Amino acid sequence: MDFNVKRLAADAGTFLSRAVQFTEEKFGQAEKTELDAHLENLLVRAENTKQWTERIMKQTEVLLQPNPNVRLEEFVYEKLEKKVPTRMNNHELLGQSMIESGNEFGPGTAYGNALIKCGETEKQIGGAEREFIQSAAINFLTPFRNFLEGDFKTILKERKLLQVKRLDLDAAKTRLKKARMADARAAAEQELRMTQSEFDRQAEITRLLLEGVSSTHAHHLRCLNDFVEAQTTYYAQCYQYMVDLQKQLGSFPSSFTNNNQSSVSGGASISVPTIPVSASLPSVSAGHGSATASGGFNELRSSNGSRKARVLYDYDAASSSELSLLADEVITVSSVAGMDTDWLMGERGNQKGKVPITYLELLN
Predict the structure, then answer these.
(1) Average pLDDT score over residue span 179-196
(2) Residues near 145 by Cβ (< 8 Å), separated by ≥ 6?
(3) Are 162 and 195 in contact (CB under 8 A)?
(4) Residue 122 near residue 93 (C-beta atoms within 8 A)
(5) How does pLDDT run across 265-302, given as a tens digit for each residue?
(6) How would you class 321 by CB atoms within 10 Å of its CB: exposed for 0-12, middle for 13-18, buried for 19 or more?
(7) Verdict on whether the full-model pTM lies above 0.70
(8) Spatial contact of 162 and 74, defined as CB atoms under 8 Å apart
(9) CA distances (Å), 261 to each of 51, 256, 270, 325, in order?
């Protein structure tokens, strides 16, 4: 019982000593041991990492789920450790409405068939969006959240402990300055050595943890690469789905298109531009034709010869080093050493300039 009372009294005395030291420092009445510059810089970097990680996480969550009410609902489910109910996203809802309306108008009619095809594509995009969100949550948001809730909380804990050890050290220095008797001075010197040792040890522990933030940056860089790769795949899938849909709608009877155009006031015609599919984009359903075309360009580069090529789409030169193109014209193309693989040298009579290979079809 006496031991517990003495222990409580000692703890109370230590707490009071720290409080007095802290208060006197605030009023400029006591000296404060400053941390070395390296440790201070590490502390600033860790705090910046925490703040920007939180900000990036928040904006990523907004990107993945723009609806704040749904985000709040998902947060509640997460805290309750319950599974979030599966719900259709906006693309899937739109696709479902299009399919139902297309069936209502009749799959055999041009409009009904077009609605169904558009609806199926919207649902495909919705599925791709769902996969992207899941990948981003696992490979990007989770590691960022683990840092904030794990490593950084440990850093905060050790940093607070370092502050406590620093207050104990400075309080011991103050008592040594005030000691007058030999016995009191000897006891104060012994206490100072002990508190200095504890402070140095805690400073080393804190420093090691803070230096680990460099590893966190490296890990988050890999996560960022995963996030960009997931975005690239998602956007490429959406692009390919829409190009395929555009081709399907373009195959509809011309009378259907003419009816739509004639209904516009003033007789103005509306045309949907055809967007060239870049060879550099990952294809969702790459066919044999694209592989053959790519092989033809590779053969042209390796042979250092020239070939005739048909222009697929109009192209306006962006600089004097490029050659403007007109759809369906035939030009001569050749490979030039050191040129980007997405470009060839094109010739039309006396005109010469770079042309993008995605606008060309090699002729036999």
Answers:
(1) 90
(2) 57
(3) no
(4) no
(5) 343 333 444 444 444 444 444 344 444 456 678 888 77
(6) exposed
(7) no
(8) no
(9) 55, 9, 6, 28
